[in-house]
């Protein structure tokens, strides 16, 4: 979903058209949208434990796909995963939802 936006398209076109001076790698967040989508789809309302856990595992894989799987647990039980998929505003997902029916 994050790759299906004007921002990511412009990022790729800039990289192709200016190979000597491409945009900064990672300057367009294309992974949060997928993680947020799964969180919103499977964690809203009454949570089915298996579906909620699976959504978090797959969401972690989406968010971490250019690096290693993140350890989102902490002794304080604060989750950076939840901060990212629940609290972070993501223009990519908003654009996708505004322009597509799913």
Give me the secondary-structure topology.
Elements: H1 6-17, H2 32-43, H3 49-63, H4 80-87, H5 91-99
Protein name: HD Cas3-type domain-containing protein
Domain HD Cas3-type: 1-102
Keywords: Antiviral defense, Hydrolase, Metal-binding
Radius of gyration: 15 Å
Strand content: under 5%
Classification by helices and strands: mainly alpha
Number of helices: 5
Query: How many angstroms does the end-to-end distance come to?
Result: 11 Å
Proportion in helices:
40-55%
Count of DSSP strands: 0
**Mean model confidence by pLDDT:** 81
Could you describe the largest sheet, including whether it forms a barrel? none
- Low-pLDDT parts are none
In total, how many domains does the architecture comprise?
A: 1
- The best one-word shape is globular
- Succession of helices and strands: HHHHH
């Amino acid at each position: 979903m994050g790759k299906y936006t004007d921002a990511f398209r412009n990022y790729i076109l800039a990289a192709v058209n200016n190979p000597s001076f491409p945009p900064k790698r990672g300057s367009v967040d294309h992974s949060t949208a997928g993680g947020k989508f799964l969180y919103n789809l499977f964690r809203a309302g009454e949570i089915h434990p298996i579906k909620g856990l699976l959504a978090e595992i797959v969401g972690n894989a989406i968010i971490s796909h250019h690096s290693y799987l993140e350890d989102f647990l902490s002794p304080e039980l604060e989750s950076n995963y939840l901060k990212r998929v629940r609290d972070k505003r993501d223009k990519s997902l908003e654009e996708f939802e505004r322009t597509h029916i799913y």
